[in-house]
Specification:
There is one protein chain. This protein has 82 residues and is an alpha+beta fold. The chain is globular and about 35 Å long. It has one helix and four strands; from the N terminus they run ββαββ.
Length: 82
C-alpha cells in the first residue's frame, strides 16, 4: 500500500524574502488520527525549520494554537486533517 499524503497550504510572512504574505505548499504524511498541529509539527521538524507558530497544551482548550484554518479561526490541536 502506498503512503498517503496531504498537501497543506501555509500562509507565510517573511519580509526578508517577500514584502507581502504568500503561500507555501507542503506534502505531509497522512493518518486518520492526525490533527492539524501534527501536520504543522511535521513540516517544522522534517521539511522547513523556518516555519514558526505558537502552541502549548495540545488539549484543545488553552487557545495557544489558534490559527486561521480554511478561513475560520480554529484550535489546531483538536480538528483532524481528514
Amino acid at each position: 500500500m502506498a503512503d498517503r499524503t496531504m498537501t497543506l497550504k501555509v500562509t507565510r510572512y517573511r519580509p526578508e524574502h517577500r514584502p507581502e504574505p504568500y503561500f507555501d505548499q507542503f506534502d505531509v504524511p497522512f493518518r486518520e488520527d492526525m490533527v492539524i498541529l501534527d501536520a504543522l509539527n511535521h513540516i517544522k521538524d522534517e521539511l522547513d525549520g523556518s516555519l514558526t507558530y505558537r502552541w502549548s497544551c495540545r488539549m484543545g482548550v488553552c487557545g495557544s494554537c489558534g490559527m486561521m484554518v480554511n478561513g475560520k479561526p480554529r484550535l489546531t490541536s483538536s480538528p483532524f486533517l481528514r
